Amino acid sequence: MPSAAAQQSPSRTIEVFVRDSATRLAIAGARVRATRDTSRSTVSDSTGRARLTIPMRLADTVIVTRRGYRRYDRPLANDGEEFLSFDVSLARTPQELAELRVEERNSAGAPEGRLADFERRRTAGTFGKFLTEADIDRRRPVRVTDLFRGLAGVRVIDSGYVRLVVSNRGPNPSLVSKSAAGSACVLRIMVDGVLRGGGFSLDELDPKELHGIEIYVGPGSIPPSFTSMQRDAWCGLIAVWSG
Question: For the chain, first and last CA: distance in Å?
Answer without folding.
Answer: 52
